[in-house]
Amino acid sequence: HVLRRVHSLAAPKGLRLACDGSEHLRNQAEHILSRLPASVAQPLMRLRPKGTVAPSGRVALLHGDPVPGNLIQNQTGLILIDWQCPALGDPVEDLAIFLSPAMQKIYRGHVLTQAEIADFLSAYDDPEISARLRALAPWHHWRMAAYCAWKAQQGAAGYAEAIELERAALV
Length: 171
Fold this sequence. Notes:
Helices cover 55% and strands 9% of the residues. It is mainly alpha-helical.
């Protein structure tokens, strides 16, 4: 419900544009991988998804980093904090980050179950966005695996294990 409300708000002008479609996700992942040693990047490059998903052209307000660590609960419900990465774009971008096995493991200690994912998508209540999320899932998992590899190279705790969660989600 929180992300659905955010995505329905009027967005301020001047925000960056988020990835929209598989081509943008491919470019972003390849850029991340280009910054890694070949021994790390090449195995991930071989996992690049096939096919393409066109841009949606939607321009919604995005949080940009809706990981579990950026949600707090108060008397009225959940609130998103840490608005350092807002953007405009396809709501799927926020949903994929929140649902990411890597981000769930790092911030909650375990990944979401299939039932929890189904409940989340039911609460978001947009079948078109849910279908688009499924179509783009391999691309989002691949980009997240690249990001986790980069974070692991920087010495961030938990990211080496998180790569494997995203790799497993790719197959």
